[in-house]
């Protein structure tokens, strides 16, 4: 881990960011592939099952959001503490984040299981798909502590540069899920229940791997029960980043629910199509999100150590790198939309809706890296207000008004074009924030006497 810290401090910027980004990209890509394959297997059960999976998906994202509350929030603060050579405080933050995730996870799990049917209704479950959705949800939600804790531990591992460990944990879980899906769904004739069981077992494996990593003393940090510190300072730093991250996940889930409800007006085929689009876009999105997770500890460390020049160079490289990825993925998604969608279903109506939706949603995809990198920058630097707004923009501030208005005007086309319009509005908002933060960073860089903390104001 000392080598990782030295790379963040003195390594060649492009090489460091690629080495940090690639493991996260692979990990996220494998996780996206698992979602992709999982949807293919579920789609084999029927259109209703595929639609049910589309309804449950945003609920699963809420659970992931709980993990990010303490994982991303804790990771941001831990990276800055490591950069400031405050290892003791970093270990206390990591320990407190982990126990807080466990306690919160238990509470959320119990409440979710109790109120499962009304929750499913909110996220778009119709009478025809409710039984499938309940079968999946009861199993997944009963063991939702695994995804919550897995996300928390994964973020904390990345915060100290342990990206290969994070990658291997994600790969192992995803590989096991892909292997178990056909066995549970078809061989054991468990149907959609088998998909849920395969998922929770795989997520449990991820938690085990990361726990072993921290208990083996191979990590730079050594979280432990005795190091837990329920202090106002720790929670202030963790939650000012964690809460916006959770709200992002929550609003993403709410927006998916609203999308499902809007699509439900046009039949289960439309709901299934929206779920297919979400999973396809997740593959490309996770590549960019994965890279951003590699950039985050780099940004946090150099911000904490006051090396603004190195931080800016890293940001510029990251913007170019993620934009190239976005352009390539946009081309592939538009040119081969019909072929990609056909992997999930043979229903011609679902294919037609999903293909059109994928093309529409891909139009602004080339600029996703611009959105994500600046949102990551603000969160890595502890700039809660700006980070909150950008994190909530794409799937909340910009998305929700559009989904409320556009379908009423354009019908199903309004549902299909909602994400494209929301992305365009988010890009404009990101541009405004980017100009301001770059100006502030330039001031700090040119004025050594100005404290680095002033950038957060």
CA gyration radius, whole angstroms:
21 Å
Give the tally of structural domains.
1
Please report the number of helical segments: 18
Query: DSSP strand (E) fraction?
Result: under 5%
Largest sheet: none
The number of distinct β-strands equals 0
The helix/strand class is mainly alpha
> What is the average of the pLDDT values?
85
Backbone shape = globular
What oligomeric state best describes the polypeptide chains here? single chain
Helix content: over 70%
- SSE string, helices as H and strands as E: HHHHHHHHHHHHHHHHHH
Q: For the record, give the distance between the C-alpha atoms at the N and C termini, rounded to a whole number.
A: 32 Å
Q: Extract low-pLDDT stretches.
A: 449-457
What are its keywords?
single chain; 457 residues; mainly alpha
């Amino acid at each position: 881990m000392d080598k990782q810290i030295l790379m963040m401090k003195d390594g060649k910027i492009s090489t460091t960011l690629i080495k940090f980004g690639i493991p996260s990209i692979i990990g996220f890509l494998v996780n996206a592939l698992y979602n992709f394959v999982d949807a293919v297997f579920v789609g084999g059960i029927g259109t209703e099952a595929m639609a049910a999976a589309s309804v449950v998906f945003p609920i699963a994202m809420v659970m992931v959001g709980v993990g990010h509350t303490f994982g991303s929030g804790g990771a941001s603060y831990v990276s800055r503490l490591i950069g400031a050579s405050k290892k003791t405080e970093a270990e206390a933050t990591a320990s407190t984040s982990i126990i807080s995730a466990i306690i919160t996870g238990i509470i959320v799990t119990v409440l979710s299981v109790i109120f499962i049917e009304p929750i499913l209704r909110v996220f778009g479950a119709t009478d025809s798909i409710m039984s499938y959705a309940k079968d999946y949800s009861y199993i997944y939600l009963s063991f939702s502590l695994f995804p919550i804790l897995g996300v928390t531990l994964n973020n904390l591992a990345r915060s100290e540069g342990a990206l290969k460990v994070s990658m291997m944990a994600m790969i192992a879980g995803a590989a096991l899920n892909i292997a178990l899906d056909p066995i549970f769904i078809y061989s054991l004739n468990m149907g959609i229940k088998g998909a849920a069981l395969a998922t929770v077992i795989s997520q449990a494996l991820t938690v085990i791997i990361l726990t072993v990593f921290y208990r083996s003393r191979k990590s730079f940090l050594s979280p432990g029960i005795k190091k837990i510190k329920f202090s106002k300072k720790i929670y202030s730093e963790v939650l000012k980043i964690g809460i916006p991250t959770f709200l992002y996940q929550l609003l993403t889930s709410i927006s998916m629910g609203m999308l499902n409800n809007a699509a439900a007006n046009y039949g289960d085929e439309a709901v299934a199509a929206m779920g297919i689009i979400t999973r396809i876009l997740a593959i490309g999105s996770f590549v960019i999100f994965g890279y951003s997770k590699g950039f985050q500890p780099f940004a946090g460390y150099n911000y904490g150590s006051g090396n603004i020049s190195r931080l800016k160079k890293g940001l510029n490289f990251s913007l170019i790198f993620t934009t190239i990825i976005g352009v390539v993925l946009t081309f592939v998604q538009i040119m081969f939309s019909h072929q990609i969608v056909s992997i999930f279903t043979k229903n011609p109506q679902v294919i037609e809706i999903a293909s059109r939706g994928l093309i529409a949603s891909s139009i602004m995809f080339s600029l996703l890296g611009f959105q994500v990198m600046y949102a990551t920058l603000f969160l890595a630097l502890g700039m809660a207000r700006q980070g909150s707004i950008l994190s909530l923009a794409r799937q909340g501030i910009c998305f929700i008004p559009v989904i409320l208005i556009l379908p009423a005007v354009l019908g199903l086309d309004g549902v299909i074009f909602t994400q494209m319009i929301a992305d365009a509005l988010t890009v404009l908002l990101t541009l405004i924030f980017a100009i301001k933060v770059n100006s502030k960073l330039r001031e700090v860089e040119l004025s050594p006497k100005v404290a680095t903390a002033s950038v957060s104001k």
